[in-house]
Design a protein that fits this description.
277 residues, alpha/beta, Rossmann fold, binds S-adenosylmethionine
């Protein structure tokens, strides 16, 4: 049987969680001392436009002090920490990959945010929730990894209070992929559901949501990923010194893949705000 927590490791972005350790060493930190959220944001946000995108979610959903928020696919915990730190919300951060979950938990504790960010390791499709309810569910570049959109949306609906929001930044399809491209998307990006923008809306409505916003981010993310690759190459010597050759080559290859896929015009990006009716 497939195990999503090991199959997802086909995606190069997830190979080297030790990048965090290298960056902390570069900042002159020891292995267990206190850290600040703002010191980490340059390398703990695994999506486009870093904390600006998290600010966008805060604005769009009205997250505030005392809100209870679930992040699906919390990675290294960057968005969850920034959310809790900047708004005073209580954040539950669910992450599939154990290595990412453990690093995230450690960073959160060292930032003194253990009381406001709860880290959980598990698969959103099967994680047991025990009657918990949230005012907002947020997610960056995660939902396309998860198959069974109907199950995913029904789980979101039942975890949200009525009137609660889903905010997601996600990948989608602009033009149909051929079979070879689908294979690549599955192996290189662990893409399990890439609907068109229209299909995205239909799925939300069928699951009992009002689609408040479906913003096409494709051009923006094409430019972003291109600039990210250029900057990474520009700072080649720094990255080789901090991370070594294997990490450098792995990241270059991943960044190049994203530039090629977005520039090809078939892979797109979407920002979604939906309200539980
Ligand atoms: C591109 S990363 C983004 C991490 C984080 N949201 C951020 O922006 O920094 C997507 C994350 O979703 C996680 N993920 C994928 N499928 C998941 C699932 N079924 N349940 C929970 N997490 C999942 C991956 O392991 C990965 O860490």
């Amino acid at each position: 049987m497939n195990d999503p927590s090991s199959d997802i490791k086909g995606m190069k972005l997830y190979h080297h969680v030790d990048r965090v350790v290298n960056e902390l060493r570069e900042l002159g930190k020891d292995e267990s001392g206190p850290l600040r959220v703002d010191e980490l944001v340059a390398f703990d946000q695994l999506h486009y436009h870093g904390t600006e995108a998290v600010d966008e979610a805060i604005r769009a959903t009205g997250i505030h002090e005392g809100s209870s928020v679930l992040e699906i696919g919390s990675g290294l915990g960057g968005p969850a920490r920034y959310l809790a730190h900047s708004t005073g919300a209580a954040v539950t951060a669910l992450e599939l990959q154990e290595d990412h979950h453990l690093v995230a938990s450690d960073l959160t504790a060292r930032c003194g945010l253990g009381g406001s960010v709860k880290h959980l390791c598990g698969d959103f499709l099967t994680h047991p929730w025990d009657g918990e309810r949230f005012q907002a569910i947020v997610s960056w570049l995660t939902l396309y990894h998860i198959p069974q959109r109907e199950v995913l949306l029904e789980r979101c609906r039942s975890l949200l209070e009525v009137g609660g929001f889903v905010y997601a930044e996600d990948l989608c399809e602009r033009r149909p992929f051929d079979d070879l491209e689908k294979e690549e998307l599955e192996s290189e990006l662990f893409a399990n559901y890439l609907p068109s923008r229209d299909q995205y809306r239909l799925d939300l409505v069928a699951a009992g949501f009002e689609a408040v916003l479906l913003e096409d981010m494709s051009d923006d993310w094409t430019a972003f990923t291109r600039a990210r690759l250029d900057q990474y190459l520009e700072h080649r010597d720094r990255h080789l010194r901090v991370h070594g050759e294997e990490v450098f080559e792995t990241m270059c290859s991943f960044y190049e893949t994203m530039v090629r896929l977005f520039s090809g015009g078939k892979l797109g990006g979407i920002r979604v705000v939906a309200r539980r009716i």
